[in-house]
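Predict both folds.
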Amino acid sequence: MKKARILVQGIVQGVGFRPNVYRIAKGLDLNGYVRNLGNVVEIVVEGDERNIKTFIDDLKLKKPPISKIDSLKMEWLESDSSSDFNSFQILESASDFAGSSVIPPDVATCDSCLEEVTKQGNRRYLYPFTACTDCGPRFTVISSIPYDRERTSMEKFPLCPDCMEEYRDPEDRRYHAEATCCPVCGPEVFLYHKGNIESDNPIKEAANLLDEGNILAMKGIGGTHLVANTIDDVPVRKLRERLGRMNQPFACMSPDVPTIRSFAEVADFEEDTLLSRNRPIVVLKKNNDYYLSPFVAPELHNLGVMLPYSALHHLLFSYTDAPAYIMTSANMPGEPMLTENQEIIKKLENVADYYLLHNREIINRCDDSVVRFRGGDLAFIRRSRGYVPEPYDFSGINTDLNVLALGPEIDVTFSLLKEGKCYVSQHIGNTTKYETFLYLQEAIEHMMGITRTSKIDVVTCDLHPQFFTTKLAHELGERFNCPVLKVQHHHAHAAALAMDWDLDEYICIAADGVGYGADGNAWGGEILYSHGAEYERVASLMPHNMPGGDLTTRYPVRMMMAMLYPYYDQEEILDLMKTHYLDYFPHGVKEVEIVANQLERNFNLTESTSTGRVLDALAVSLHICGERTYEGECAMKLESAAYPGEDLFDLPIQMVKHEGRTVLDTSPILMSVVEKKLEGTSIKDLACSAQRAVSQGLAELAISAAHKKGIDTIGGSGGVFYNEAISMTIKKVVEDAGYRFIQHRNSCAGDGSVSMGQAAVAGLKCGKQH
């Protein structure tokens, strides 16, 4: 007779881990118990030594599908011939549990639950909230830990006798499935239009309303979606007009992969991701037979599509032949996604025609995740529902300090580093909006609560002094009586990528729209030597003036004019702008002359090395996009215009010295594009060659830096690396030169992982001082 104590750490709460342990132990004739101790599951087993060793192996091989084992520690305990246990039991969670809890993310409805929902005669037939330990909401329903029903939004729905029997049976897949319920005891869905609409089947009625061209607000798992038909232009344009989003692409939901293939290209790796339990939005290329409304994703060669991830979604599509519905986050631009019924009705009064709502509280809103593939490699555009709050392993950086990182200002996430785990939050959004700034603070408090974090040792934020997140960092520093560490934006990008690949040093190409530089200027096309907690700016794009500052980001013709200005005399540049680009100046000729005067007098100018602004200038020079109405619009449309093109032109790639560093002068590329455009050259081919020239120039800067530093790895970070053509060109140039090229794989290339990089830098820097 042997006895052992086993501690299992990881995602082991709310995933059916304890009943799984129970079944394995019973099958091996072992006695003892299992119980939750925070993010640690404690197991004590007694029995034959060989069976105990088999038990250890089976814990790893036969774990529940949602669970994740980060560590498993076993110690033999003193034992004699007499038994301390008569059976194997599942004990209640300990009140004095240790460690921080790792709550699993929300996951898609499993096949077993879906079978119940679609099978006539089953007591959960057509029930939209069906879930079990293998699927359903987790993060969005939890209020505190340990993860038990009374600490979730399901606490308001006492289990009926049938559900309670399943809940208490360790052999049942709904044993302690906190989200379990049925039509007798669970939440209800209802249709609303100036009052509740009486309906025997509100979901079926909702599908009929959508097919008739109405716009619905549909409350789901982690928030609310605005839903509309994708075949008819009228409801799509109506939704755009009501939201004031005339160009930004809408995400869609489609019932299954074969249907998606009818309008989009789906590679095997994209199909696997679409079907994964995470169910993100996947950006796919439109196929030659694309037949959805062109207003779904206007002037783009791709669109975002996801599959149903809740029983509610599956049921909605069971009542329609529609190939896809628009399924976009229900919020006014820049504000958080709506979650409360009265707020949904009030704020969407002039947007939605009808509302499909339910009476279960969403405790943590969580937007859909978005991914894209570049040459077969996955890239997170937004890491949120289905992935959050699963932490990253930072044990190699710091296991002692609690670090709170607040991210940048737009596309914000925050990160909490505790006990060697980095918890990156769900997508928060644009914190220049007051409601979003409040949401950030609420989400921080909640994350600290579910990770049992009572103190913070270091707060870290962006270098920009005017960001709301920077100001909040100082407030939190005073609250926790701890230092505030500011991290340069692109350094944080580089650090996040280094964590993704467990690298100590490499050369990072940091290319995006803007980040506050160490010199007080706007950076965005940087070659950084990243080593541990430090970085060195070794090269960049040529700085260019931005007349009018932020006006240049909205109207890229200003950037184009500034880039060309030093290379033309004033009469030539004025004639070029007035003759060929006047429509892109909102105030016409007068504005052209004002901008020229600014450039001549060096008045009201800011300086930027931004790759994004260069791509914007190229887009407007080719008459592809003249106004940025959403983040990345001009660059995205440039990519789409270039997608069918051929790289036919050898555009000039000129390296010069500037302030002691090598820079790529992008003005000659732009000049050549403008000249060839005026000659009537193909726009798609010019766009293709222009992207290649910028990409090749960045790659050559990085290769030169890697050679000088004696480093064999070059990486790419920043929003520009969502562009597949640019990513693949840089990868080819780098690898052809004999260097290894890396990109983000488990984190975001864009600003969604800046907070993660900030946490890494703080952990490294402050860990050395600790």
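Second protein follows, with its predicted structure tokens after the sequence.
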Amino acid sequence: MDIYSYHHFIFMRLLFPLIACLLLCLLPLSLSYNQLPLCHQEERVALMQFKDSFIIQNNSFYGEYPKVASWGIDGNNTHCCAWDGVECNQDTGHVIALNLSRSCLYGSITSNSSLFRLLHLQNLTLSYNDFNHSQIPSEIGNLSSLTHLDLFHSHFSGQIPSEIQYLSKLSYLRLSSSFDAYNDLYTKLSQTSLLQNLTNLKVLGFYGINISSTVLESLANLSSLQILVLTDCGLYGRFPTRIFQLPHLQGLSISNNEDLTGHLPEFHTNSPLEGLELDNTNFSGNLPASIGNLNSLTYFSIGNCNFSGTIPNSFSNLTQLTYLDLSQNSFNDLSWLTRASSNDILPQFEYLGLAHLKYLTKFPDILRNQSKLWWLDLEGSNLQGLIPKWMHNVSKESLQYFYLSNNFLTGFENSPAIIPWPNLVYFDLKNNTMHGSLPIPPPSLVAYFVCSNSFTGRISPFICNMSLPEVLDLSHNYLSGMIHPCIGNLSKSLSALVLRSNNFGHTIPKAWAKGCSINMIDLSENQLQGHLPRSLANCTELEYLHVGRNQFNDTDPFWLETLQQLKILILHSNGFHGAIRSPETNYTFPNLRIIDVSHNYFSGNLPAGYFAQWDAMKSVVAKNLKYLDDISSVDYSIIITIKGVELEYKKIQDGLTVIDFSCNRFEGDIPEILGNLEGLHALNLSNNAFTGHIPSSFANLTQLESLDLSQNKLFGQIPPELVQLNFLSKFNVSHNCLTGPIPQGQQFGTFPNTSFEDNRGLCGRPLSKICGDSDISTPPPSTFEENQGPKLFFEFRWKVVVMGCGCGFVFGVVIGHIGTTRKQDWLIKIFGKKQHQTRISRVNRRVNRRK
């Protein structure tokens, strides 16, 4: 059973009795076409008009198909009661149910929509469509017969109409925000009026709705309530304990309300609870021993809360429990986990989360008898020493996702040549002290994270037995030898190949497969030699290429211009040499945002034709940007050098734009056209042999925060227009032949003497020389040495680790955790919470809070 199926299994297990009852009430199960009631003409027309108001997107995603495509008024398809998704009353013929879930609808539902003419509707299900962030019309209140309203994940925004509270027959209500940039569905409905009117509710699901209030005690008066979901709703204050004890409550989810406090009550044996989800809240206190009375509990999630004390031994009574997440709490007694006897009867888990439990120093004995696990998370605890041999047989056939990162593990007991779980899909061992040879992944493995360990030796060619790998991250180890040529053949399925900071030598594999779909290649900080293989041009989806700090000896690499998706190109600190030719096409690097060819031996003039085509650097990108990252949870990263200070960006926002051509042998004029790159944040042309003037067009670079032109042969004046650069916080023109007054005002009042030193013709603040002094004369030749090559700035550096590029590229540095683990959260939790893609961002937030 895959993750998505598992989610629906749990959800339907909780809702099946209710849904079955609704269906039985709405329509007999066996009804032939000839027995169908007569379709009302006005309702058939209304349905057709409703269909025609949308575009059909024809997605084939998680079972989506356009149900309305079969609707028609011609031929034999005129009977609307037989249309897909439509149900009619057997006696009256009126349309009473419209289920268009996952029907590929795109468009808006307006206030005059024909939908609101279907006045006999009892069931309206429009979940998993795209209503283009339109507002839910207040006319929804006209459908007074509704008992079932499901608008989950339907891309509505704005205010939820107050008229919903008057649908007094509702027993099922599910609404959600879009879980994207338009996540702004909110309500001004008071809980009091909602609860006073909707007294028949059995299922109430609000997901990502901005409620921003406390939870009323009167919610506990809804005695018929079976499922209550209030996730990510901005709730705060103390959660009423009586709600846990509602007589028919089967499922409760209040996760992702970080300011919501509370504690668990004593539970009675007659409680029908099957699912309880409190993760990412501020619940605290001890887990009551009476939790063992919840005989029907299958799902219990309290990850990232503040529970403490003991994990009760009564957990052993929860024989139906298949999903348990205790991660990131403050338990100081883990004996139930670590002292389990082989004779104990324990729950058979499918999902077990024990991450970031600081007193967990060894592999818990509770795992010894687990045979059904497909997800096991032991990340960020204090596991030490070897992975015991008995672990090799834990859920040997079923385990698919295994997280062991950020521990103190040193290796495998009786080190296996092959990872011992043959069906493993995702294996995360990063940030440990694992040593010895790299274990060979099973063919099933999709993502292999072993970065930041101490693995040694060569990569076995059997690593290429993986059938459909997506991520291979072996960075920051001591691996050596050559990168096996078969790696190039994996590029048809790989999205990220990260071999940074090892001891790999020889050349890059020369054969990269046609149809290569890789997004990210990072081979930096190794001892690779030779040329960049021209077959990399087959990787047309490549966004990030980093081969810095190797020993490549190659000429002009700009044949890479054929890679239209390339955003980041890092070639610094190699032996690239020669002149850069002019572009041969009119569409060169259109998406390039960051290029660093510093510390090489490039020479000749900068070809202005390239800068004319770098479209992504010409636009000023709006705020609230996303980070650039690979779809497979590998962060893009770069190191930017500013005045000898290395800023290492472990996360890069989409709007960051940088050009670094420093420490080469470029000469001639600096092209004026550089001033067209108005989105540029940093420009470094230092340590070259540029002559001529500083282009006045640089005044157009209104987003520029760092400009380094030092160690060249520039002459003339500093353009006074540069005072317009309000974001400029780093400026260096030292060691040139500049003359005249230093511009005054704005940011120029903040730059130190060192920004202007060794320009004997310059005068004015911050220099001591006053303009008009008689000793201003032709400056001596620059101290720049043409043959200095890339070695100059390697002598002394600091290193600063930063994340992102916010409002200030230099002063707005945010120092943060640089080893963020972002799991692919394909686990779809209980209660129909979110679509597959949105769960990835949710786990990201949880993991970030852990650190």
